[in-house]
Target: 5-methylthioadenosine/S-adenosylhomocysteine deaminase
Amino acid sequence: MVNSTTKKWMIKNGTFTILNNKQSIVKGYMLIENDLITYIGEEKPSIDEEIPVIDGNNLLFLPGLVNTHGHAAMSLLRGYGDDLALQIWLQEKMWPMEEKFTSKDVYWGSSLSVLEMLKGGTTTFLDMYDHMDQVANVVQESGIRAVLTRGVIGLCSEEVQRQKLQEAINFAKDWNGQAEGRITTMMSPHAPYTCPPDFFTQFVQAAHDLDIPMHTHMSETRSEVAQNVADYGLRPVQHLEKLGMFTRPSIVAHGVHLTDEEIEILAKYNVGVSHNPGSNLKLASGIARITDLLKAGVTVSLGTDGPASNNNLDMFEEMRLAALIHKGISGDPTAIPAAEALRMGTIYGAKSLFLDSVGSLAPGMKADFIAINTDQAHFIPRTDFISHAIYSACSKDVEHVWVNGKQVVKNGACLTLDEERIRHEAQSAFEGLLNR
Amino acid sequence: MVNSTTKKWMIKNGTFTILNNKQSIVKGYMLIENDLITYIGEEKPSIDEEIPVIDGNNLLFLPGLVNTHGHAAMSLLRGYGDDLALQIWLQEKMWPMEEKFTSKDVYWGSSLSVLEMLKGGTTTFLDMYDHMDQVANVVQESGIRAVLTRGVIGLCSEEVQRQKLQEAINFAKDWNGQAEGRITTMMSPHAPYTCPPDFFTQFVQAAHDLDIPMHTHMSETRSEVAQNVADYGLRPVQHLEKLGMFTRPSIVAHGVHLTDEEIEILAKYNVGVSHNPGSNLKLASGIARITDLLKAGVTVSLGTDGPASNNNLDMFEEMRLAALIHKGISGDPTAIPAAEALRMGTIYGAKSLFLDSVGSLAPGMKADFIAINTDQAHFIPRTDFISHAIYSACSKDVEHVWVNGKQVVKNGACLTLDEERIRHEAQSAFEGLLNR
Model:
């Protein structure tokens, strides 16, 4: 819609989702200067020079969606072993294949996922995996924003532990702030049940030294919680508190099985929880206590988890699941209203990832936003666009996507990645894994 | 793809979902003669004459989806009052507006829904509402297949009851078998809590007289079950058994709150249950005991319910919800595997609606089928197309739709309905309801 060299441009006739306390929608104008939104309002802003203007008629503009937990490269294992018991799925399907992943596999698997995410309106994602340089390359090329972290499993010799920790530190140092500031980094011991306490604390120390946040899997299944109690005499939240993790800004993934006391601790330390409803349901992990977490003041965001346990990267689906399942479980149809689900998928996500200028449409925020075409049967009548976005929309309704002020998806097509090649290379990578 | 006058035509290079016990996918050819599928197989069928052939490369063919419970015209109230307590939603939002619905409103509301359903791959739907002649007109014009029934609320004088019953009988008589056989009819007292027993039994008698099946809402909420026990000393299933409903072929909608004994009775009489997961979650009605129903041998199908409580008519979403939530609730990741969810959305739906020749791709079945384009990021790698259809697809992945051998959607556009006009008229109808 605009030339990539344009510094200042405007949308007219748009419907903008601002979701502040007083007002959820503004119809009118949005002004973008370089990578920032500088104005949203009903009145046309007064500008001296001629600037490009695009017509936002019949488009609903939303903040770009923020996916706070995943393993992008696992798209190569999408549909490879579904509907199996968890241990069979992991031990016979996922782990033997993941062991064979090369840098190249991670590059194409991550490309496939970033392509799907951008086209589906996700403008920021957190990724925890191995061969992270390749994921960072994909982020750089694609124009997406990302929080990247080398997830380390510590069930190995001390020497290998040291190597992996150093690799995680090097990656976090090298890439923090890269790609025009679109990449930030974290330290991620994979989980309390895969990292012995003394190894876990080395990540806490590294996060302090580098002054970056921490991420880990926590309390995803009943059995891992029971194991934690058996091994350390503590449930996972108390265990991580004891290891000092929460002295750093932190976000934990899943948090399905939590006691009241654990919820209080998470609230006290401002620990964010990445709720992964699709993955938690599909793997039969259970249903997280999201309404209780929100009531306690915990910042709850949404993640798809890896595409092998979801099996897509549709954040509209995660927002809808969050809005639906907690009503059904609680018996309260007012639980997690549409606007709250949208906040979980946008501003709460940005807050959880410690990105202050992302996640809402407002002057001073990064120009990360998406447009969906509301002139479609499932958005008629035009009653409540927030409801429509949560209860009716899907990722394929996304027409245009901008990140950092640059358009990356136009009329449903990705401008920055070679879709046909990525599909081909990802398919080949999967076949290669099968055959070696 | 083919001229509508063609009697015999073929698809080559297709991937066909046959879902029988031995095999789920066939790659090869499908032959269609008039309204029937006459061949599916790997080998090219030997045909003497020249017939039109379409290339099914990169297309996954599935049986058309079967939506077994809904109120299409309620699309006019989509997004009009979400996230409210049930009684406020009904008494302050739905009922005052529905009271104002005219025939014209029902026509445009139903047109909007049928448009959305066809484009999303639904080829058969059950509709229970008022002004049913209008719904039948839409079915006739659009080319969709439907089971139509005038839903009658009996909380009125005996005279009005008589009028409504007669209207339901007349509609069922007049339209059964119409629209080249695409329309069948049922008798539908709205629910045990809205139809006094002696009125309910008159519907049973009429269904016997007309030799057609019955449909009703049953056990959707805890409070209606409690009310049934208080009023009649019986839970709803025993109550309906006593009223003789199950002497007719029957399908009940919802069935959320059921005891073991009630499940046994449903199984004994072969009563189908239309599971409406999206609506049950959104209205916080609860989560139906679907794995127990299936274990007991009950035919469980899927319905969207009305678009005001969903808020879309995406049967892919209902299949995915069915596959996901019962895993999450039971803690068993093998509960309702992808293939079973697909059967619930297709063949079990057809069986529930007593349509013997609909719901699967096989010789002798009606040519009701859909094609989704698998050459997309979220369907790569090509591991398991059934998994992809359930866990990754959405209604907007549907490219082509055929009903009764005729193409009704081509490249995502509906060939039989005027989409732009329907959107406009539906929006006007909603505004008219607001203003009068």
Notes: The CA atoms of residues 44 and 226 of chain A lie 59 Å apart. Chain A has two domains: 8-64+358-414, 65-352. The first strand of chain A starts at residue 8 and ends at 17. The longest helix of chain A spans residues 158-175.
